[in-house]
User: Fold this.
Amino acid sequence: MARRFMTALLVALVISGSAVYFLSRKMNRKRPQGTPVAHYVGAARVMNPGTVLNSKDLTIVTWPADHPLSGSFAKVDDVVGRTVLYPLAVGEPVLDHELAPKGSALGITARIPEGMRAVALQSNEVVGVAGFMMPGTHVDVLVTYRSAAQAEAVTATVIQDVEVLAVGHQLEPSPSGKPANVSVVTLLLTPAEAQKAVLAAAQGSIHFELRNGRDTAPDNLLPVGLNQLTAPTSSRPGLIAHERRIYAHPAPKPWVVETLLGSKRTDASFSGGSND
Assistant:
């Protein structure tokens, strides 16, 4: 009797154990697994434009595999030696378009598009707007000069709607939006514009005009001389033309001369003279 009871107990244990095992296997298969991830090269620290990457600047970061990154890198060695073109935050994956091409020169030259030139011009901080410009803004370039054929000073607009590449040594706008107070500005120009800019700088004083970023229409302007400073100008958009009033001076009062000859008195009037 006892043997039968032990046999039945062992059989029940085996059956229950098998049921628990197969049930747990089935539940584990249905249990959702962790989200698959990919591994990319990322920034190990905050990096500014112009930084030449080395192995200490880089790390491996995880990224959701179902959102692959175009232009990413899987090996640190593929990134070492490249120059950063845009700011990178800690843990941010490094992408190919954020780096200068392999073998390119360092610094600002990596940001110059093919066929363009970077020219640095100096302007007086008082009369120019150098203290209010930031990289990425657009300006016109003016020059005030005297020529051999004309003794009086002339101001001319020589270049219109060009991009500011750098302000001083600053390649990126300040995060706070504060402009840099410097007088040297680097412009992104075509080769023909670069020639005009250098010639203008050699002839006289350079000034900058800030433009609205959406205002790209060229202006047909003629040089302005001293004799045109008082000439009437066309009304500006958004401004109301004021009537020019001319005040006439009143006619001068006549002079009256009184003459006494004994008891005889005579008066004589004379026109003209001053009102004072």
Summary: Residues 32 and 76 are 32 Å apart (CA to CA).
